[in-house]
Amino acid sequence: MKPTLITLALALALAAPPALAWSRQGHQLVGELAERELSPAALAQVQDLLADEPNPSLAGVSTWADEIRAAESELGKLSQRWHYVNIPGDDCDYDAARDCPDGECVIGAINAQASVLGDASRPRQERIDALKFLVHFVGDAHQPMHAGYPHDRGGNRHQLNYTGKGSPEGEGTNLHGVWDYWIVQGAGMDTADYADHLQTLALPSDPAAGLDNPAQAWTLESCRLIKAESLYPPGRRITDAYLDQHRPVAEARLRLAGARLAALLEKTLVP
């Protein structure tokens, strides 16, 4: 018997931290924040497209892109490279031909899926899938390690030992996993309360607004944070002090991701 997506979702929720980008809660926060900011017209279109989903909300579909990848479905395999981009060097000197050939990276995926979603002549299921992809990939683009270095696969090969409230006995992880999971989970808030908290954070004026390729700008912002915020710890052991130090960066990225997802859906669904 093949596992259902509901079974896979439960398995993913209990999986090791690196299994989900931003963790399940992180992606749900991006979806929840975006949905709160949609206009009635855009929200109506979102609700129509998601009407048959088990949880018909942006938060409810926010981890679907990871679930189909874990299930190794054909679409999951096809979309495997769409969750990230690896850019060599500290200066984040992005070269599309080198770093995103044929649009096979998170930047190309956001642009491609927005085009599908905005085309009312496309089959309904394609547009539903495009919406679910966008909720996830906009979140991914704002996670610094999803725009990390190729030499360690965005921190996946940078091994660490975390000891803190979440794992008092110590746990082997990696830098990517720390940013996918421990940073958000370490706040100790449920999703609704955390979304309320994130909504209180001031949004800066958006330097990516109006650009021809905002997805590229968002992703390169993430890449530059790795050096600017010294996200690689000096040793191979981290405690809650690392999480507490860098959580404001993560929360600012989640807040921006929610606002930018809402703006992208407005532009795409209500031109």
Task: Give a short overview.
The chain is mostly helical and 271 residues long. Helix content is 54%, strand content 6%.
- Taken in chain order, the helices and strands follow as HHHHHHHHEEHHHEH
CATH class: Mainly Alpha
Largest sheet: 3 strands, mixed
CATH domain fold name: P1 Nuclease
Low-confidence stretches: 1-19
Structural class: mainly alpha
- Count of DSSP H/I helices: 12
Which quaternary structure do these chains form?
single chain
- Report mean pLDDT, rounded to a whole number: 91
Q: Share of helix among residues?
A: 40-55%
Characterize the overall form.
Answer: globular
Percent range for β-strand residues: 5-15%
N-C termini distance: 44 Å
Please identify, by name, the CATH architecture: Orthogonal Bundle
Number of strands: 3
User: Going across the major beta sheet, what is the strand order?
Assistant: 2-1-3
Characterise this structure:
There is one protein chain. By secondary structure, the chain is mainly α. The protein is built from 12 helices and 3 strands. It has helices at residues 5-13, 23-37, 40-49, 64-70, 74-78, 96-99, 106-117, 124-141, 175-185, 191-199, 214-228, 240-269, and strands at 159-164, 167-174, 237-238. The chain has one domain: P1 Nuclease (Orthogonal Bundle). Helices cover 54% and strands 6% of the residues. The protein has a 3-stranded mixed sheet with strand order 2-1-3. Mean pLDDT is 91; it is low at 1-19. Pfam families: S1-P1_nuclease. Residues 1-21 form the signal peptide. GO terms for molecular function: endonuclease activity.
